[in-house]
Amino acid sequence: xKSIFSLAIALLISMAASAQxxxxxxxxxxxxxxxxxxxxxxxxxMFQMISKVTDGSEDKELSSIVKDLKGLRILTSKVNPSKxxxxxNKRLNIKEYEELVTVRDKDSNVRFVxxxxxxxxxxxxxxxxxxxxxVMMSFVGNIDLSKIARLAKKLNIDGAEHxxxxxxx
Length: 169
Known about the structure:
The protein is of the alpha+beta class and 169 residues long.
């Protein structure tokens, strides 16, 4: 009886996690063909390839950063950014995440939220909305926050300047 109960709990947890991943996936799919949006997707295979190509010391640092990442999705737009930000907050059920950093000022909203499993951050979601831009950046894998900020800076990822706010808080 105990094992049936444990199995049922495990199934419910995995279904909830899958539903949230599906919500993020659907959000990206809804906008990936829209010419008003820039879309970036880095697959798990690409992160594996990057982690294996290490020549110099700088490459070794990059390898140590990406070895535990499983995916990266970025969606940006300068068209109706506040509206898209509001929609993203409604559709993605942010309550399933732990708030890491929120920065609000007169021109923009920046939110960093994380999802943990077994004491390890396995997803970092960045949402930025304001009068000038919308950015949604989703990192999936075993995540070290300090390494993510360095990775984004090294790869010159659009919207990465917001990741520096993690280290300032």
